[in-house]
Structures are given as C-alpha cells and as structure tokens.
Amino acid sequence: MTTHDNDAFKPIATVDLAIFSLSPAGLSVLLVRRANAPFAGEWALPGGWIHIDKDLDLEAAARRVLKEKTGVETPYLEQLQTTGSAGRDPRGWSISIVYIALLSADDVEKRRDAMAEDAEWRPVEGDGVGFPIAFDHAALLKEALGRIRNKVEYSSLPGHLLPARFTLSELQSVYENLLGRKLDKSAFRKRMAEADFLEPIEGELRRASNRPAQVFRLKDIKSLALFDRRI
Fold first, then answer.
1. Which helix (H) or strand (E) holds 177?
2. Which superfamily is assigned to 7-151 in CATH?
3. What predicted TM-score, i.e. pTM, was given to this entire model?
4. Is the predicted pLDDT of residue 9 greater than 70, yes or no?
5. Are 171 and 141 in contact (CB under 8 A)?
6. Do 200 and 214 meet the contact criterion of CB atoms below 8 Å apart?
7. Which fold has domain 157-218?
8. What are 155-199's pLDDT values in tens digits?
9. How far is CA 76 from CA 24, 26, 37, 62, 140, in A?
C-alpha cells in the first residue's frame, strides 16, 4: 500500500444541506447561486468545506454552514446520507455528508437580513425545483424530499416547520400541505392527542372563526415523536 502526503490525494470533504421552510407557495428549499467554478452562476444546495480547525464534528460543520447561509440556528437537524465518488465534483474525488434542516417561517422572516446575499428560497415542484441544479444536488434534494414526505406520515415533523406557538388547525394545514391531501379533522386531532408530542400553553388562546383556539407548542423541539401507525 502506498501512502501519499500530497494534498492531491486527499478527497474534497464537504457538508451539504437541504434546508426547508414553508412559504405562501408551500414547501420551499434554500438554494445558493455559486460565485465560483465549477458551475459558476448556477444554483446549488448550500454547502461548505469541513474546517478541521473549527468543526468539532460533522454536525458542528453543518450547523456552521447553516448559520452562515441563513443566520438561523435550527434545533432540528438530521443527517440524510453520506455520498462520495470520483465523478460528482469536477475538482476531484469528493465526499459529502448531507443534512436536512427545518426552519419555521417565523425564523426565516426574522433573520432575512442575515441571509447570505447569494441565497434564495425556491418552491418545491415535485421531486425538485423545476430546473437543473449543480453537481449531484438534484439527486440529493430528491432523497431529502423523499425522507421528509415519508416521515410526515408517521411523525411530528410538520411541527418543526411551524412557529414556536401554533393551533391544531395550523398544524393540520401543514400536514395536509406536505401530504398533498385533506385530513379528517376529528381523526387528526385524535391522532395528535395519542402521539402526545404537544403541550397546551396555559391561558393562551387565538381567535378563530367560530371560537377561540387553544395554542400549543412542541414538547421536544430537538427530535421527532414517532406514531405507532401512519396518519
């Protein structure tokens, strides 16, 4: 076995993020326009090199990149996959650790001024954004969307796209948006109660069309509650 000390034999190591939020257009993903080659001027998922002098671990690297691109620190971050090959980056052999991040619309709006100038929210269309994006990021985005849509069926994931305080009607609306179908109101509320991942905020009600609605929050903002059956 030959050992190489030359940097030319070291793979490119990055973290890439599929960062999702909700907008009036529905589920949206954050893209950045690349300033430099390769793929200069094209859109891509946000990403960055792993800084071995700064990043204590892979999650720290992902959180640093997220903060640089959005100005936001999300409590929910999930590793999607690790991918690598000689052909995915024209600069050479590369490895990418891919993460999913979920941001509430409130967080996005509050930190809009801190978002990188080259970053832009784009609505999700099917399994992508309706146009090509750089590297193998279209495939990574498709994988991320598949993970999200699958987990919506059996977890509290939609709650992480909402502001810290929300009503059950608002939560149901997000589930329906991500599932692409309407849900029975009574059955939905029964399932949420059984899953036991919400806590009512005492004394806080929100005006609704018929009567004041109780306001809730997630019991655990850092992890998902899993249901015993699909919604």
1. helix 168-179
2. Nucleoside Triphosphate Pyrophosphohydrolase (3.90.79.10)
3. 0.90
4. no
5. no
6. yes
7. Arc Repressor Mutant, subunit A (1.10.10)
8. 999 999 999 999 999 999 999 999 999 999 999 999 999 999 999
9. 22, 19, 31, 12, 19
Q: What per-residue confidence (pLDDT) applies to 28?
A: 95
Q: Where are the domains of the chain?
A: 7-151, 157-218
Average pLDDT over residues 89-116: 87
8 A C-beta contact, residue 31 and residue 45: yes
Amino acid at 24: P
Per residue in 71-88, pLDDT tens?
A: 888 889 999 999 999 999
Cα 150 to Cα 52, 74, 103, 146, 175: the distances in Å are 34, 21, 18, 6, 12
